[in-house]
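Contributing: when you submit paired examples, paste them exactly as shown. First protein:
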Amino acid sequence: MSRTVIARRYAIALFELAREKGELDRVEQELDQVVETLQRVPELKEWLTAPAVDVERKKALIAERFQGLSAWTKNLLFLLLDRGRQGLISRIAEEYKHLADEARGVAEAVVTSALPLTEKEKEELAAVFEARLGKKLRVTNVVDSDLLGGLIVRVGDRLYDGSLRTKLIRFRQKLTGTQVG
């Protein structure tokens, strides 16, 4: 079974529990905190994944290092340690965020543009696509200097390509496909 499938199962279980308890936001913030700490302190991540270190010592460190965690998040971390799957923490957090966003009606939009977008442009773009999709959007801007102009917007598995490069390619295809006669 793939790591993504396994991580999704843990995320779904935690999501269902957090939703039932009304703690979606709190658990998401706690997972973000754990992932950010593990990224900031690579020695901690190495120590937690070291097979030579006793699981109970790892649990004690987690309990000490993350004292403010809810019982649900802490129990997830302990379960991952028991099963030797602590390497899935960041993937579980990612999957959890997707589930929580979906429950809130929020979608991630990745907007590719030739130049960085201003906050106002991001807001205006979000408003247009929110009306079209019926979801609240969180916009991330990616700059691609190869883009001649226009935008490419990806929301989930949907792609809206309004780039000048694509328009020129389509125009060229129309021209070469046109018969003169």
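Second protein:
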Amino acid sequence: MTTSAGIPQDLSSDFTIDAFHRGRFHLVQPKGGGHRSGVDAMLLASLVADERSVSVADLGSGAGAAGLAVASRLENARIVLVEKLPLMAEYARRTLALPENAFLSDRITVLGADVTLTGKARVDAGLHDGVHDHVIMNPPFNHADDRITPDALKAEAHAMTAGLFENWLRTAAAIMKPGGQLSLIARPDSIVDIIEACGKRFGGLEITPVHPRPGEDATRILVTGVKGSRARLVFRAPLIVHGADGNSFMSQADDLNNGRTAYHRRRR
């Protein structure tokens, strides 16, 4: 679904308004450039399975797809969208101003901040210690030797920097309550960096490989962990997104993508 409603006329050609969770909420996204959210964001959101009144920080939130998906499914969740790029943060603010999102906009705030900040600079930016029950993230995933897109906004959103997971997970651990849950989606070749960055910060890691279709290699991994846990790592059964016949969703993936269910940890 695409419409220009709610967007100033002189900007409407630069945006689309796209429906998620089968029209339950809508997202303002860049039309011709920048990062556009889809299944990855919905799978990330599905990792938050908590009916309590919780605070969720979405690091590097972009236009806010994953955070809004959490709020759409969990009526007691409060979300902070953390985004350093002013233009993407503006997309998020325009998203929250849409009439279609009025039912959840009062539970979501946008924070313009760099998640790699440390110490006093991080706190001064609004990323305070020990606040959140959940931290979710879909960090940039393109390596330096990947083909670089000519779209500057998309390149910055997708380009992985040295020590990325160490920097992002350091912040995640700092702003999370003891026993809080980390959730992230990444490419499989980042698994070593993720495990190393979790270190003694997060334990009880559960890693799920995500395969586009049966018989195809995994293109993503879903990772959850608990702050301060010393439980062992578990590799879970693979999640298959599409059937072998084409692009139709497998039943479980369709439910996760459309917010009908959560992807629960094995150890709750």
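If you have annotations for the second protein, write them as plain sentences, like these:
Residues 1-12 have pLDDT under 50 and may be disordered.
The first strand starts at residue 15 and ends at 20.
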